[in-house]
Every structure is written in C-alpha cells, then in structure tokens.
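Researcher: Please predict.
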Amino acid sequence: MVPTPEALRELLRDPPPSPLTVLKRFGSRASPGFLSFPRPGFTLSLDLPNQGEETFAHFARLERVAVEAGGALYPAKDARMSRESFERSFPRLPELVAHLDPAFSSSFWRRVSR
C-alpha cells in the first residue's frame, strides 16, 4: 500500500521484472480492522521470480519506499517484511496484541513480533 503518487513513481522507477503486476487505487474510507490493509492511496502487487540476493535487494528497496511514504506491505502475502516495517505499517497493532492468546504462534508472527 502506497499512499502517494510520488511514492508510487519511486516504486515504478527501475522496477524488477514481474510476470504479473497489479495496480489498484483505494478510496478514502477508513477500514475498521486492527490490521486492515486498505487505506487511501495505491496498492502495487509484483510477483517476482526468486533470483536470490538480487530479488532480496529489490524487496528491500520496495519495502523502504512504501513504508517511508506511510504505506504498508500486505502481511498475508509477505515472506520478508521486517519487524520495524510491520510496526510502522500498522499503528493499531498494540490494540490487536492486547487480544491475542499468548500461545498464538506462526512463522510470520515470530518474525515480526517482540
């Protein structure tokens, strides 16, 4: 999720090759969920073939641009999001954590939680 056209332009500068690319624009309605992904702005989906470190470098640049612009990565489809990016992307995260079962665990949650 990228909230500004400027950030979207930066994401599309020197894009990695993607066999499937989807660009959507969300409206201005706020989503009520703790980890709701939709928010005003654009969403850009890229399917990147794994080329090792080159692909990881692309992911890091794309993540940095999106998060610095106030956007977010989509947690349900992410495999590399950093803890810092997750926390910055979802400001209602502390509200969710207050309701979690302490025994809850997943590989994603272990990567992005404290």
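Model: Helices lie at 5-12, 53-68, 83-89, 93-97, 107-112.
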